[in-house]
Structures are given as structure tokens and as C-alpha cells.
Amino acid sequence: MDPGNKQVKRLGGTMIVLAWLGVLALLSLLFSKLLDWQYNPNKALGSRTLDNGIAETRLLQNRQGHYLANGAINGYEVVFLLDTGASTVSVPQSLARRIGLKEGPVTRSQTANGTISTYRTRLDSVELGAIKLRNISASINPHMQGNEVLLGMSFLRKLEMVQRDGSLTLRQQHQ
Questions:
Q1: Which end of the chain, N or C, is more open, meaning fewer C-beta atoms within 10 Å of its C-beta?
Q2: What is the mean pLDDT of the chain?
Q3: Is the separation of the CB atoms in 149 and 92 below 8 Å?
Q4: Of 115, 50, 112, 122, the residue nearest 85 (C-alpha)
Q5: Nearest to 71 by CA among 92, 100, 101, 40
Q6: Quick one: average pLDDT of 91-120?
Q7: Partners of 127 in the beta sheet?
């Protein structure tokens, strides 16, 4: 066989391998984005302020039936997990330290896993789409893993909530 033909075949084989690697990388990226969206479909929130001054934010359920959404605490971006069973907003201690929350008095909190010690704190502002509330009571939880903030009733009770067909609409009456 001619050495030139061997080189062409080798180059062709290399190009085919590179093409397949490119296709696999693209598919991995697409599936990663799809899984990320299925986990938190509310990275870009559907929000608006109505003519009467009512701020409204619409959330979609994720595949597990939970409502996760990007938002902010004191201007720092966070991911919220809405939890109507939580009395207050609960921030993991590692995240609280990164965003500069001050640990207040120790308090005892009842969780599904028993009674734990947490620290009281106040949040200057909590934002979820067009909804922005100030001076929200919260707890800093040294036992929480990860970076998701439980958005409890100290925030949610100030809103009107309507759940229908896999979505949750939150309305803030007065801005």
C-alpha cells in the first residue's frame, strides 16, 4: 500500500473520532442543561408589576413537584426552595457567612429530623422576581447542607398564593 494512502486513511480515521467526540460533547452539554432546567425551571422568572401596583411572580414545579427559584437575599443571588412547612426563611450557615448575615441569639427549631439549634437573624431584603420584601425574620441553620435557602412562612405569609396546573402564582399586594 502506498504510504500516502496510509496517511490519508489515518487522517480520515482521526477526523471521524474527533467528529464523534464533538457530537458526544454537544449531547452532554444539552442533556446537562435539560437536567438543570428540570431541577430548577425558574431561573428566569415570569414576573410583572400590574397597573394597580401588585407585583406578581409565577413559578413552575420541578420534576419532583417542588418550587425552586432564583432570587436574592440582601442583593446576593441565591436559590430558594419554597417550604410552607417552615416557619421562617432558613439559610445554610455556610451561605449565611458568605453573604454576611449576622448570627443572633441561639434558638431551638423543630425539624423533620428532630430539634436543632439555629441562630436568629433578619434579612434586609428578600427578592423573588418582581416581589421584594424587607425586614424578614430568618434563621441560620448550621445543620443544612448545600446552598439552597428554604423560603418559609416569614416571607410567604405576606403574599397571596394560587397553585394551579403545576404552577404557583405569588402576589404582593403593596409595594
A1: N
A2: 87
A3: yes
A4: 112
A5: 40
A6: 93
A7: 72, 132
pLDDT given for residue 175 in this prediction: 53
So where are the chain's domains?
Answer: 1-39, 46-172
Joined grid coordinates for residue 40: 430548577
Does residue 50 or residue 76 have the better pLDDT?
76
Cell of 144: 443544612
Sign (positive or negative) of CA dihedral 116, 103, 120, 100: negative
> Quick one: fold of 46-172?
Cathepsin D, subunit A; domain 1 (2.40.70)
Q: How far is CA 115 from CA 107, 122, 147, 152, in A?
A: 10, 21, 21, 17
41 to 7, 10, 54, 75: CA distances (angstroms)? 50, 45, 23, 21
Phi, psi of 36 (to 5 degrees): -65, -45
Helix locations, 41-146, DSSP H: 93-98
